[in-house]
Design goal:
This protein is mainly α. It is 89% helix and 0% strand.
Length: 65
């Protein structure tokens, strides 16, 4: 859950910077967008970590042979 908090913070800061450069500031869109982006980042990181862990296991099996 700690990783998700960091993703949420990163998403929130990214969207704040984006909103500053846009014409209008909409707090509801900022909050909803932050949550959606944080979930997306969390899922992507989980998938990438899973792939790397699988590749490490395959490499370890090949070295044992």
């Amino acid at each position: 859950m700690n990783k998700f908090r960091w993703h949420l913070l990163a998403a929130f800061l990214t969207l704040i910077v984006t909103e500053i450069f846009n014409d209008g500031f909409q707090p509801i869109a900022l909050i909803v967008g932050s949550v959606i982006l944080a979930v997306f980042l969390y899922i992507c990181e989980s998938v990438v970590n899973g792939v790397f862990n699988r590749l490490k296991r395959i490499g370890a099996k090949r070295r044992k042979c």
